């Protein structure tokens, strides 16, 4: 797929400016319906999830004090991995989006929440809420697209270095929380000699290192030490739980903007973008994951990535409710609602990573070559 | 020897912090007991007793950190109404030293009162609420004056009830007390039974305004001939307090009053915006976002997407009213409410003070 530009409008060619404004108005109305009915039920929901997550984490860590016994290791590790996923996705990510700010509870607020992840909340909010959600899928502006280290679109020039991208994508998945921290710091850009000394970067680096030190001390020193004779097994349990969380979150996030069918945009195409056009870009630039309630909970409702990108500040528990309305809009405006099961979307995203690691025409040429060798 | 225990406790606390980061130990302990010592101050509503058809008394078990109040003081209570935390101040109606350690406030439902209606009609025992320490200087002096006059109306009786109950608890003579209380009808008098039982120990003058008409301050001399000799405390609607204040000032007398939520918010369009920490005041017409207004005036405004999605511009609104430019929704705040707003999508809807 190639990026949408100001001139080549591909899948939106059939929509006039008025259509797009109307679409925007319809989406505003959907948002308003949720705002009007937001209340006690929603507040009870997030409190319940936080409460359950903390109890699960405490219990799992308690069980891991006896991780020398393999069943304890297994149960504790699984529990801790799930607790960390819940904290990062349904709780942390969504609170930091301000989805729960309306409750005016200082303990569940975008300005105070610090999540169980290597990247400091403040830096995450800048790179994710501000850059990624504003410039969704705009090549060169949205670093989530390939995190600045991958080729994500046919339009990007190929270079032999991209041959390695399936490998770094896998490595990044395993250490995803550090990958996020590094990319929130814009390490690639900031490690240049000239910028390294920049005091602003230095301050952010210090902040990130402090957070990472705290996280590592907790998982790899304090809790193992508390486990006494089980120290070593608790260490491996915590490593594994973090690995599970990293692989899971990486997969879910890849499914959000990477699968085939999701559009990318050129920088020029968003000049003077209207509210309606912004909505449209969110619709075309995101993909959902289908599944049951458990899937939605464990992905932090990013399984409703399209709805989330349209309304990043609506409480996550309500995306499910508006999804049919949003889908109906897609149909009415002749747009494609990209959605699929987790395995399908993960495979699709990986397929793209692998395909784009090679030059555009290489596969074609290979195809022709094989045909030439084996004439029909 | 003496310092080992605290040092050990500090060490354990530090260890607990290391084990729970990025949260803090209390985030987990709160799950077990939100009222424990060291927790943020909270309370649990244990009983809700009807007083009149539109007033109830909440019996609250305060958290361990509660410091006893002085009768007449009020407490700020944070209640979640429709999922939104709302803070209001209510006078304490319990004596300072109740044997069971519980405190009471008495709430009257006022028309359109979001919190009062919730507490009177919908709140249930068992609910945990947020508390502040008691505060306020609407109290009796340590040296009790010989002659006292209380002028109250409606729920304005509540701080005075706290004072009377405490004085009764002292077993001491109440002294010479006149209580002039107004309520629409006899049935609307909060604490009617208790007050009427005090007759003989205090002078109770009830005005039932539906039949007797509103208290006219000009009649004060008729109702309480020696009012000028009495130390006077008044609590009630703003109109009454303003009239009383004028009456007393004219005569060079001192009047102590208690007012809640005194500022009347103007919620038209636009207003004067004060950036409290930057010493900057701008007047706005309410058509553009506060973010633009602040930036134009040189205030260092945090911001991000400028379109309402990133929450990078959220700042505390100390006081005032703002309107959401996307849907016209109004948000109001009084000091201490802890209201935060997105400056990029809100405009002033009255005078506002922003903590920046
Ligand atoms: S600047 Fe992004 S929400 Fe206000």
Automatic annotation (TrEMBL), chain A:
CDD domains: Delta6-FADS-like. Residues 72-339 form the Fatty acid desaturase domain. Pfam families: FA_desaturase. InterPro entries: FA_desaturase_dom, Fatty_acid_desaturase. It comes from the Bacteria. This is Acyl-CoA desaturase.
UniProtKB/TrEMBL annotation, chain B:
InterPro entries: 2Fe-2S_ferredoxin-like_sf, 2Fe-2S_ferredoxin-type, Beta-grasp_dom_sf, Cbr1-like_FAD-bd_dom, FAD-bd_FR_type, FNR_nucleotide-bd, MRET, OxRdtase_FAD/NAD-bd. Residues 271-356 form the 2Fe-2S ferredoxin-type domain. Transmembrane segments: none annotated. Residues 38-141 form the FAD-binding FR-type domain. Keywords: 2Fe-2S, FAD, Flavoprotein, Iron, Iron-sulfur, Metal-binding, Oxidoreductase. Its cofactor is FAD. This is Ferredoxin reductase. Pfam families: FAD_binding_6, Fer2, NAD_binding_1.
């Amino acid at each position: 797929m190639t990026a949408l530009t100001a001139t080549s409008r591909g899948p939106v060619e059939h929509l006039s400016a008025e259509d797009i404004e109307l679409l925007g108005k319809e989406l505003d109305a959907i948002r308003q319906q949720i705002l009007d009915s937001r209340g006690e039920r929603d507040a009870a929901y997030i409190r319940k999830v936080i409460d359950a997550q903390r109890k699960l984490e405490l219990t799992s860590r308690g069980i891991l004090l006896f991780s020398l016994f393999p069943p304890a290791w297994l149960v504790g590790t699984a529990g801790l991995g799930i607790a960390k996923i819940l904290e990062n996705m349904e709780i942390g990510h969504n609170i930091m989006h301000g989805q729960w700010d309306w409750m005016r509870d200082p303990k569940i607020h975008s300005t105070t929440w610090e999540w169980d992840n290597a990247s400091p909340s403040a830096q995450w909010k800048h790179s994710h809420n501000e850059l990624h959600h504003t410039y969704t899928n705009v090549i060169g502006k949205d670093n989530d697209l390939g995190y600045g280290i991958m080729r994500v679109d046919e339009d990007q020039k190929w270079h032999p270095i991209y041959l390695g991208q399936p490998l770094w994508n896998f490595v990044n998945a395993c250490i995803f929380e550090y990958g996020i921290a590094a990319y929130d710091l814009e390490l690639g850009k900031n490690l240049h000699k000239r910028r390294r000394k920049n005091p602003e970067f230095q301050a952010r680096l210090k902040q990130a290192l402090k957070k990472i030190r705290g996280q590592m001390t907790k998982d790899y020193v304090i809790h193992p030490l508390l486990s006494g004779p089980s120290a070593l097994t608790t260490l491996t349990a915590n490593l594994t739980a973090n690995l599970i969380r990293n692989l899971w979150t990486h997969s879910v996030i890849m499914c959000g903007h990477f699968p085939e069918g999701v559009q990318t945009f050129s920088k020029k195409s968003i000049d003077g973008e209207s509210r309606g056009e912004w909505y449209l870009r969110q619709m075309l630039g995101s993909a959902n994951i289908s599944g049951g309630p458990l899937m939605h909970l464990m992905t932090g409702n990013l399984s409703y990535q399209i709805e989330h990108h349209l309304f990043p500040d609506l409480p996550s528990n309500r995306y499910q409710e508006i999804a049919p309305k949003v889908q109906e809009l897609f149909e009415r405006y002749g747009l494609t609602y990209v959605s699929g099961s987790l395995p399908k979307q993960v495979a699709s995203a990986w397929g793209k990573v692998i395909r784009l690691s090679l030059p555009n025409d290489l596969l074609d040429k290979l195809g022709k070559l094989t045909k030439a060798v084996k004439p029909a | 020897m003496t310092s080992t225990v605290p040092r050990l406790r500090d060490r354990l606390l530090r260890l607990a912090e290391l084990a729970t980061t990025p949260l803090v130990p209390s985030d987990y302990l709160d799950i077990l007991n939100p009222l424990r010592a060291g927790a943020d101050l909270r309370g649990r509503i244990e009983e809700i007793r009807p007083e009149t058809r539109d007033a109830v008394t909440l019996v609250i078990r305060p958290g361990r950190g509660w410091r006893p109040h002085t009768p007449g003081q009020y407490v700020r209570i944070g209640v979640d109404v429709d999922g939104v935390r709302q803070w209001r101040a209510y006078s304490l109606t319990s004596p300072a030293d109740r044997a069971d350690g519980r405190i009471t406030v008495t709430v009257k439902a006022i028309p359109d009162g979001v919190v009062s209606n919730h507490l009177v009609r919908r709140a249930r025992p068992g609910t945990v609420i947020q508390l502040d320490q008691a505060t306020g200087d609407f109290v009796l002096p340590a040296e009790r004056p010989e002659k006292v006059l209380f002028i109250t109306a409606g729920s304005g009786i509540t701080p005075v009830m706290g004072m009377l109950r405490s004085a009764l608890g002292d077993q001491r003579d109440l002294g010479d007390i006149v209580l002039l209380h107004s309520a629409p009808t006899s049935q609307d008098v909060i604490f009617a039974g208790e007050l009427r039982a005090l007759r003989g120990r205090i002078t109770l003058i009830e005005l039932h305004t539906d039949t007797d008409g509103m208290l006219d301050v000009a009649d004060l001399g008729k109702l309480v001939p020696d009012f000028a000799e009495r130390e006077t405390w008044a609590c009630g609607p703003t109109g009454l307090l303003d009239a009383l204040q004028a009456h007393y000032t004219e005569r060079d007398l001192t009047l102590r009053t208690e007012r809640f939520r005194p500022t009347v918010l103007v919620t038209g369009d636009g207003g004067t915006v004060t950036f409290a920490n930057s010493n900057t005041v701008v007047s706005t017409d309410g058509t553009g976002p506060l973010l633009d207004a602040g930036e134009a005036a040189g205030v260092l405004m945090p911001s991000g997407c400028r379109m309402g999605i990133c929450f990078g511009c959220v700042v505390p609104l100390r006081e005032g009213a703002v309107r959401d430019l996307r849907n016209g929704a109004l948000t109001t705040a009084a000091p201490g409410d802890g209201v935060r707003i997105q400056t990029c999508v809100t405009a002033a809807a009255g005078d506002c003070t922003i903590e920046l």
